[in-house]
Structure formats: structure tokens, C-alpha cells
Amino acid sequence: MKKILIIIGSDSDFPVIKDSLSILKRFGIEADTIVCSAHRTPDQAAKSAREAKEKGYGVIIAAAGLAAHLPGVIAAYTTLPVIGVPIASGPLNGTDALYSIVQMPSGVPVAAVAINGGTNAALLAVQILAVENSELSEKLYAYKSELRSSVERKNMVLKSRIADLDK
Ligand code: RP5
User: Does residue 81 share a domain with residue 23?
Assistant: First the structure.
């Protein structure tokens, strides 16, 4: 199965990417994580993106904060799907990164997830790999059914809390 490459702009972005790693682990998908900055190490960013496909990666998750050019720069050098995660850092709390990542010019798409959306970035990556992998698809169905059960549990708890109001 294809692997996932996770590129973070700084080690300070790692807490958000821990959420991605636990999802990928749960689905049994191998991932490599590297720090590489569009601004501080632009040559390395280009190299990592260029080599990703031949190294066996199927999707790249790129997370960055502030003026977050990393996902866009990575997308410029590869035909692999790139998922951008805006990180909440600095005085603008991630809105700067969100705008940078989501406003890509035509021709170079980046799939932007929510600010600090490490979980959804990984799930989207799994869904992309699942297009060609029925075993992964089954696991995604099971995941969705767990989500459904958790909402059913919430409804039961809510019901009993409302009933307690009358006591
Ligand atoms: C961005 O600048 C990184 O992605 C990080 O979110 C932010 C701050 O980086 P550090 O100063 O913590 O290395 O490039």
C-alpha cells in the first residue's frame, strides 16, 4: 500500500500532526514525518516533493502556520494530492495560515482542512488511498459506524439529562 508523507513547517507544529499519526496508525497506514520549511529550507521542500512519488507515497499532508506557503510549494513540485493543514500559531491564530493554504491559484490545488485539522487531514488521506483499496474502504465504513454509535450514545445521555431537569 502507498505510504503517507507528512511535512511540517517546524517541530512546533508536531502536536497537531500527532492527531494525524494516530488516525493513520489506526488504519494501518505507514507514514513518514519530516520538518521542512518553504521559507527556511526551500530547496529541500522542492526536493522532498519531487521525490515523494518515486519513494512510494500516495498522498502528502503538509502542515504549517503563519504565512503558510509550505503546502502550496509542495503542490507545485508534485502531482500527488496535497492536503494542507493550517496551524494555529502567532497573533492571528491560524487564520493567516488558513487563507494562505486555501487560496491557491488555479492549476495548483491544495485540499485545505480546518485550522489544526490533523484528524481530518489523515482521514482524507485514507479516503484517497481507499479509492483503490477495498480493505481500507471497509475500515472507513467501520469508522463511520463508530461515529454513528457515539452520536446515539450522546442522545441517550442528553435524554437522561433533560429528564433530570424535571426531578
Ligand atoms: C511556520 O512558522 C511553521 O509551520 C510554524 O507553524 C511557524 C513557527 O515556526 P517556529 O518559529 O516555531 O519554528 O513556518
Answer: yes
Task: From 6, 11, 12, 87, give the residue whose CB has the most ligand 1 atoms within 8 Å, as the site to mutate.
Answer: 12
**What does the pLDDT look like over 17-34, one tens digit per residue?**
999 999 999 999 999 999
Does the beta carbon of 84 lie inside 6 Å of ligand 1? no
Provide the number of structural domains found in the chain.
2
Residue 41 CB less than 6 A away from ligand 1:
no
pLDDT at 167: 86
Order of all β-strands in the sheet with 82-87: 31-35, 3-8, 57-65, 82-87, 111-112
Residue numbers of the domain that contains 148:
134-167
